[in-house]
Amino acid sequence: MLVDAPYIPASALEIEAQKAVEPGRPGPAFGRRLATLALRGGALAVFVGVLVVFSVTAPFFLTIGNIGNVLGQSAIAGVLAIGLTIVIIAGGSNVVTGGIDLSLAANMGLSAAVYASLAQAGHGDGVAIAGALGTGLAIGAVNAAAVTLAGIVPLLATLAVMNVVAGLELVLTQNTVVPASSEFLSALSAGGPFGIPVLAYVLLGFTLVVAAIVQYTPLGLRLYAVGAFPDAARAAGLPVKSFVAGSFLTSGLCGGLAGILSVSYLSGSTTGAGDMLLPVVVTALLGTVFSRRLVPTVTGTLLSALFVGFLINGFQLLNISSTLVSGVQGLLILLVVSATTLLGRKENA
Amino acid sequence: MADTAGRGAAIVRLENIVKRFGGAEALSGASLTVERGSVHGLVGQNGAGKSTLIKLIAGLHRADEGTVEIDGKVYDRLTPHLAEELGIHFIHQDRLLVPTFTVGEALFLGRELRFPGTPFLDRAAMRRRSAEILERYFGLALPHSALIADLSAAEKQIVQITRALIASPKVLVFDEPTAALVRREADLLFQLIRRLSAEGVTILYISHYLGEIVDLCDTVTVLRNGRDVATLPVAGTSAAEIGALMVNRDIGELYPKPDVAPGEVVLEVENLALAGRFDAVSFTLRRGEVLGLTGLVGSGAKEVVRTLFGLDRPTGGTVSVKGEAVFSADPAAATDRRLALVPEDRRRDGVALDLSVTENTTLASLGRFSRGLIDRGAERRQTEDLVKRLQIKTDGVDALVKTLSGGNQQKVAIAKWLSRQSEIYLLDEPTVGVDIAAKVEIYRLIGELAERGAAVLVLSSDIEELLGVTDRLLVFFRGRVTRQFISSETSPDQVLADVTGAYETLRHAG
């Protein structure tokens, strides 16, 4: 009588009650859909509204050159945000206990420093690329181990790793700018067809590949299952921990890739990579608003990267202080997280 | 689906299984033989070991002793994956489906359909196949774009079952499948089970509702206290007989119940109703009386207790405490009227684990110990007195409650209300998860409360216990009080028949 696992979970009671109270189903589902629709519509309206306001007030805003510019400028944050998106998909979008990788910006900084240092030491691009990607992957591996083996909440684990990585970058660069130049780097930072920077094409290509895997393969579907409902994934025979670990390895690689892009963009490694964290988190969280089911998606993240990019760009064109930009970004995080959390609560009620 | 050759041979055989958790034995020599092609029922009271037994077959637990044999082969290290490969599939009572998935995605998760020769998902094919399967087995058409979160409980249940069907199972294990279903949906499920059985799938069916077992199964195994006490053919056996096997008849000296002459009525409930939960509930409770409430999950008994304490606002009827009608739904006002609720989940709601015994004891009555500042001395004396009186085993009144055993934590939860000088006690599953010795002490404590003039209401799903400690017993079934018993004149199997609605089913059948 004493030791058996709790036989009837409290949730069964709730289900029973729910059924008894309202047998018809349109009620909550309909309300939720409406709210989802409002949130998505609202987000798109704000996106378009921002574009319109800026194009009216800033004459250069809607020129091909400027759009290409924004795409190129968004490449680094975009690649990082896509890495973060994968972690959020696999870890679930609960803001406190779900998937998050706060070490991404610092990861980019260290990877860039590794690249620039190797280049300065006379190594070729191949070695430097391998060094940067290896650095990113190693950081991802530490995150993966901390989360899946040590069982630390991602928020804390990656916060700690972020600090370690930022410290390593300081040690490596002595807090100085490490210049780097090579043909590969110049080619990356050059302009491409239609006057659009190569970095913009890199971002689009990268998004395409990752989106194809995440949105259109069984692997991606399983990734979503693992994050949204680990018990269901386990019941379907999926190795939940391996997926979570894999997501951190992937985001680590994204950090390494972003490091390479930033070396090319800035012609070397510079300090202050940590400032990138807020825009990256905004971008990834905001991305959920652009999906039909209000889940993080790779394409949604690309859209929101462009949105954030246009926002920053517009502010610059209008000569609005850049300090305001972080304020707006912080506000966006609050808005998006509270909106999706409220919706989620309604769903579970 | 499965071949019908060899019908009658054992497909699942558990032999003398012993399973311990910590020091306690969940199973102490249980055996279960399920024949190929049969519909086998498994019944037992809460804690009889059903869940543990099922989890052994699922490969989630490993037996400490005994053998697990599937299809004639002994498996020492059964894993969930292996169980699935052997064709054993489980319909759990909580639906394990991803809420943000479409029906097609949820059905095919883990064995997705792809465009031939590519690594890409063929969502259209998954949608088509799932529509076909749902139509074929359930005559159910769900919108293509429907997400799992949009489905009703019953529809989710159906999707869950369909997931198992896609894998062409040999054995399907249903764990309380009707808990979330209404009658019509349950009937649909029974039809499906019969059809699957006719197709040769072996069914293992766990349920609280004995009526269902009698309707559906051809063999039933009864578990009691971690052992199988009987395996019988259902033909010629009544629900009441099965119920009698589930409970231990000799109650013995477990229940030290004092004789108390009841005093004046302190709680009067008339036609109390909470829409969708319970309706037309009436009873009275006197000083010195112990009244029992019992019923299955969702029967309304628990909700009545919550409503009495002001946690839910009733939609009809009246509650009077000591002759005064109560209108507000307010737990604070309820405690002022000297009501006390000892909740089921004591670790979450009953005690603060990280506070000391003293702090917990005086938590609800700090007003008595403070004039601006807390009088630690008075607090301590009161707690020491209660610790002695309730025989709470602790390293001292400063020990943290989390260091105490479950039974002693429960006593602290009760001490809190004694310190508050409560007079009407609502005890929700007071002995869940405590060992037998602590149970007896809690029973003694209930008797003592009554002797001191308190009125006690005990909600429990352990019927023997209820009959042992209460004067009267009310049985709830689907939101109503279906019967009242005088505890001393009643045997557990009589009550169980009402709790499980065995008579309801007979009425349906007749």
CATH class of the largest domain in chain B: Alpha Beta
Rg estimate of chain B, integer Å: 26 Å
What's the assembly state of these chains? Answer: heterodimer
Instruction: Describe the strand arrangement of the main beta sheet of chain B, using strand numbers.
Output: 6-7-8-3-9-10
Kindly report the average pLDDT value of chain A.
Answer: 82
Strand content of chain B: 25-35%
Provide the CATH superfamily of the largest domain in chain B.
P-loop containing nucleotide triphosphate hydrolases
* Principal-axes shape call of chain A: globular
Termini of chain B, distance in Å?
Answer: 35 Å
**How many distinct helices of chain A?**
14
Shape of chain B: globular
Unreliable runs of chain B, pLDDT <50, ≥5 residues? 1-6, 505-510
By secondary-structure content and strand pairing, the structural class of chain A works out as mainly alpha
Order of neighbouring strands in the sheet with most strands of chain A: 1-2
Average the pLDDT over all residues of chain B and give the rounded result.
83
Q: What distance separates the N and C termini of chain A? A: 32 Å
Helix content of chain B: 25-40%
Low-confidence stretches of chain A: 1-28
Keywords (chain B): ATP-binding, Membrane, Nucleotide-binding, Repeat, Sugar transport, Transport
Pfam families (chain B): ABC_tran (PF00005)
Organism (chain B): Shinella yambaruensis
Family (chain B): Belongs to the ABC transporter superfamily.
3D architecture notes:
The complex is a heterodimer of chains A (349) and B (510). Chain A has a domain at 62-273. In chain A, 75% of the residues lie in helices and 1% in strands. Chain A is built from 14 helices and two strands. A two-stranded antiparallel sheet of chain A has the order 1-2. The longest helix of chain A is centred in the first third of the chain and has 32 residues, at 26-57. The model of chain A is unreliable at 1-28 (pLDDT under 50). With 510 residues, chain B is α/β, with parallel strands linked by helices. Chain B has four domains: 1-87 and 170-249, 3-Layer(aba) Sandwich (Rossmann fold), CATH 3.40.50; 97-167, no CATH class; 253-338 and 423-490, Rossmann fold; 352-421, no CATH class. Chain B is built from 19 helices and 22 strands. A six-stranded mixed sheet of chain B has the order 6-7-8-3-9-10, with helices on both faces. Chain B: Belongs to the ABC transporter superfamily.
